[in-house]
TrEMBL record:
It holds the Pfam family Creatinase_N_2. The keyword Methyltransferase does not apply. Belongs to the peptidase M24B family. Residues 322-533 form the Peptidase M24 domain. The keyword Transport does not apply. Gene3D superfamilies: Creatinase/methionine aminopeptidase superfamily (3.90.230.10), Creatinase/prolidase N-terminal domain (3.40.350.10). This is Aminopeptidase. CDD domains: APP. Keywords: Aminopeptidase, Hydrolase, Metal-binding, Protease. One of its GO terms (cellular component) is cytoplasm. It comes from the Bacteria. SUPFAM superfamilies: Creatinase/aminopeptidase, Creatinase/prolidase N-terminal domain. Residues 21-145 form the Creatinase N-terminal domain.
Length: 604
């Protein structure tokens, strides 16, 4: 199994670990310390050796922060984790705060006093974050102390070793472009910014640029590394050489110099002393990187990571790979759905059993490399926890009379998938059907949207919520995130959300996943992946409009739909989508599953 169901959270760790940290802070002359859920690359998935927030508090979510002062502490999470954090963290030691409504900066501003010293690990906070923290400290008369090492590492007795996952080449037949071609494009964009070189801190940017993949973090094929890319000449890849076989090293040496990670900071200092203009992304790069360049005399050029947009816009080979991956994945998901309908009504199936079976069907494709994240299999109230992770302690039997939410994905060499379905088990109440249908209406609104070039995800986000809003309901997460090509299942900068400021471009792939989560009851989320299509003329229109091509292939549960709430256009879309699912997948299924799929995709 790629997924573990072990209990990795321990609320009881809060008190003793906070005491250890406070003792270390006192030894260093610090009055407080901030602990983000981050590693040196600011990635969503971090290796066990960098899970400092989890070690300290017990919280395992993908975003968060803890603040520890001499006599007070708190943990900060966003709306996805407001339920989860209370189950995983000792609230007496780390009271939970909302990361957006009660941000760390506001909390600190009310507590810091003149003369205090607040420490941070300068590699784990971005340049932008440090600017805000400095302002808070200066306003309070306190000092922000940038540390070169982390106090937690000094007291974490059994801290795991750094990962050494082998690096693999990602062939042009899957990547669609050679590394040399990509480098030429990125180097031009660096020169256009009047920079001498760029520092890449994101492992997925480096993996895409050099056509490599790795296995240093769970579920995402990343080799943890840094790189510097000059406007002219060879880049330098900073990576632990133990990850490179002789053949991989030879192939990479043709396009990049290779150095050990410990050489990064001296390299940056030498660039600074030479007066180089060094491009960094202030939203992604650790303050330590910028500070090293600036302290040595270099000129910082703040700009977005030059790889983000080219990586987000998939080339024709990546697009065809994504389509192929979704047909393959659709077969596995439909086999699971048919099996679920047969097994779940007996009342013996639990969340772990469902997650294991879905992974089994994906493995039987013969091409599964990994799952793209821990499957979210939420029965009853667990479904109301947006990013719920089932463990052997939390595992629930799937009950009749409540929707069952299952959100999962796969990593294939030709594409990354992410799909959520909410399933009926036994009779569903009218209220459940109403909630499901309101979410479905938002999903269809995104799928059928037409929009001009320059449109951002923020402008589309309202479409997914408007019917929920009319009913006085909402959901506390974005409507959609970008998807990588055999890379991160959560890829930026594209997203459909209130904060989605990047214009959508043809070739981008995004999720479409509105939801609704009555706390303590159940969860509903419906997710497909959407490919942004080229602009097309609309009869009678004045300008071409972009739209979405839905590439996920699996039926929605018709038993949860209140057809009376759907417009004729919405019914037509759903029936048409189900016809495409049926026609595409039937040739790949056995007779029993074919029969199930034909019934599941009958017209409304």
């Amino acid at each position: 199994m790629f997924q573990s169901f072990d209990d990795i959270s321990n609320p009881a760790c809060g008190a003793p670990h906070a005491a250890l940290l406070r003792s270390e802070l006192q030894r260093r002359g610090l009055d407080g310390f901030l602990i983000p859920r981050a590693d040196a690359h600011q990635g969503e998935y971090v290796p066990p050796c960098d899970c400092r927030l989890q070690w300290l508090t017990g919280f395992t979510g993908s975003a968060g922060m803890a603040a520890v002062l001499a006599d007070e502490a708190a943990v900060f999470v966003d709306g996805r984790y407001t339920i989860q954090v209370r189950d995983q963290v000792d609230m007496a030691i780390f009271p939970a705060q909302h990361l957006i409504e009660e941000p760390v900066s506001k909390w600190l501003a009310a507590r810091l006093i003149p003369g205090q010293k607040l420490g941070i690990d300068a590699m784990l906070h971005t340049v932008n974050d440090v600017k805000k923290l400095r302002a808070v400290c200066e306003a309070a008369g306190a000092e922000l102390v940038l540390l070169e090492d982390n106090p937690i590492d000094a007291v974490w007795a059994d801290r795991p070793d750094a990962p050494l996952g082998a690096v693999r080449l990602h062939g042009v037949e899957k990547a669609g472009r050679s590394a040399e071609d990509k480098l030429a494009e990125i180097q031009k964009s660096i020169a256009d910014k009047k920079a001498d070189l760029a520092v890449l801190t994101q492992p997925d940017s480096i993996a895409w640029l050099l056509n490599i993949r790795g296995s240093d973090v769970s579920h995402t094929p990343l080799p943890l590394s840094f790189a510097t890319v000059p406007a002219e000449g060879k880049p330098t890849l900073f990576i632990d050489g133990r990850k490179l076989s002789n053949s991989v090293r030879d192939a990479l040496s043709a396009i990049t110099d290779i150095a050990e990670p410990m050489g990064l900071m001296p390299h940056l200092a030498s660039l600074g002393s030479d007066g180089k203009r060094v491009m960094i992304d202030p939203a992604l790069a650790g303050e330590a990187i910028a500070g090293t360049v600036a302290a040595a005399g270099g000129v910082l050029v703040e700009a977005q990571d030059p790889v983000l947009l080219p990586k987000a816009v998939k080339n024709p080979v990546e697009i065809e790979g994504a389509r192929a991956a979704h047909v393959r994945d659709g077969v596995a998901v439909v086999r699971f759905l048919a099996w679920f309908d047969q097994v779940a009504p007996a009342g013996n199936l639990d969340e772990i059993g469902a997650a294991e079976k879905l992974e089994q069907f994906r493995r039987e494709t013969g091409l599964l490399k990994e799952i793209s994240f821990d499957t979210i299999a939420g029965a009853g109230p667990n479904g109301a926890i947006c990013h719920y992770r089932v463990s052997r302690t939390s595992n629930r039997t799937i009950p009749a009379g409540k929707p069952f939410l299952i959100d999962s994905g796969a990593q294939y060499e030709d594409g990354t998938t992410d799909i959520t379905r909410t399933l009926a088990v036994g009779p569903m109440s009218d209220e459940m059907k109403r909630h499901y249908t309101l979410v479905l209406k938002g999903h269809i609104a995104i799928s059928t949207a037409r929009f001009p070039e320059g449109t951002t995800g923020a402008q589309l986000d309202t479409l997914a919520r408007i019917d929920l809003w009319k009913a006085g309901l909402d959901f506390d997460h974005g409507t959609g995130h970008g998807i990588g090509s055999y890379l991160s299942v959560h890829e930026g900068p594209q997203r459909i959300a209130k904060t989605g400021s990047t214009p959508l471009k043809p070739g981008m792939i995004l999720s479409n996943e509105p939801g609704y989560y009555p706390a303590g009851e159940y969860g509903i989320r419906l997710e497909n992946l959407e490919l942004v299509a080229e602009p097309r003329d609309i009869p009678g229109g004045e300008r071409p409009m972009m739209g979405f091509e839905t590439i996920t292939l699996a039926p929605f549960d018709r038993r949860l739909i209140d057809v009376r709430l759907l417009s004729n256009a919405e019914r037509t879309w759903l029936d048409g989508y189900h016809i495409r699912v049926r026609q595409t997948l039937l040739p790949h299924l056995d007779d029993a599953v074919c029969k199930w799929l034909e019934e599941a995709t009958e017209p409304l």
